[in-house]
User: What shape does this take?
Amino acid sequence: MHLTTDEFLALNEESLKEFLCRELPEDHFLDYKEQLSGDSKDAKSKEFLKDVTGFANANGGTILIGVLEPKAGLSVDEQVVGLENGADIQKQLEHLFRDCIEPKVSGVIVKPIPLTSNKSVVVIQIPPSLGKPHMVKFKKHRTFYIRHSEGTMPMDTHQIRETVLKTASAEDKAILYLIKMEKDLIKYERSKQESLLVIQAMPIIAPEVPWDVLSEEMRNRVWNHSGSYAQWGFGLNCMHKPRPSLDGIRGQETQENEIFSVHVHRNGYIAVCYKHENEDNMPDKKRSFHKEFGDFFDSFCELCTDLISITQNDVPYLMSCKYHFALNTYFCQKEHIGYNSYGPFGKRTMTWPEQIRQPGEDFQFIADRWFEGMYHAFELEAPSR
Assistant: This one.
């Protein structure tokens, strides 16, 4: 996708023209339209539904209505022709993709961008979908479409069958990858008899282009973070530049006292391992969870947000959080006088329910659920954050 969800939502006339200055041709992810094409209202509706399902059945994309395709000699100002009544068009289009696509495409956003000419450009962002294939169901028209670099075409029987199989197996593949990596991380990251908190994020739809994990921008996001990453000592500040690994890069807190490690793979996988030992600053030096672990969950979700922003790989993510070798771990909570300890936890593994983060969603809701789950594991009510 040429625009992340955040970039899309922030679009205005100025940033739209900055985007158009890149002179990107129509391709697998991008479609320009001077206006909705068709000789009648029904023809225009059918064409719009065809374009939306075509992108959804491929890997998502962006449609710009009221914009000419770039060509030699055409300035950006000439390229932006605009439409009358952008807000009305937005409502019409939202009604169409809500009622005339089966199954519904989640996460489609229609955004009218006001222009100084008193017209609007209507921009539609279609995310990659886990529910494909999607069918246009408009009056008597029933067809599946898919986007190619040369345009949007009807899907043949083979393509429909392949899409069904790929969609059905996508989440299973993500789960299997998480299981494999979890075993590897336990084997190689647990050097002592400490507990190990393993947080993982795996794209359910693989990135079209492998992540350039060795780029300076990517490594700098994992190395020496500033700001909200440095929370209470549970930020993900790698003190040394992440090193190449077989799958991507690996960063660690320090070389002398490695408490956590960060892993980013070319296939979009992100993970953090936190080595949890008995804590001197906790009552009776117990190995304990406490409220500030919420900062760790927050930091991981912020890292995911940053990496997706720089790679422009805004796809559904499967999120996993497990605490291994959890037996006899306590929860320490500050009360009116001193601390109270709750527990010990009676199982070998503390497992949070897996979550799916859809394109465009804030990762923070995942961090909040992990925070609540930490309290619920000890039969405690989680405080508001």
User: Anything to note?
Assistant: The CA atoms of residues 40 and 46 lie 10 Å apart. The chain has nine helices and 19 strands. Residues 226-233 have pLDDT under 50 and may be disordered. The longest strand covers residues 195-203.
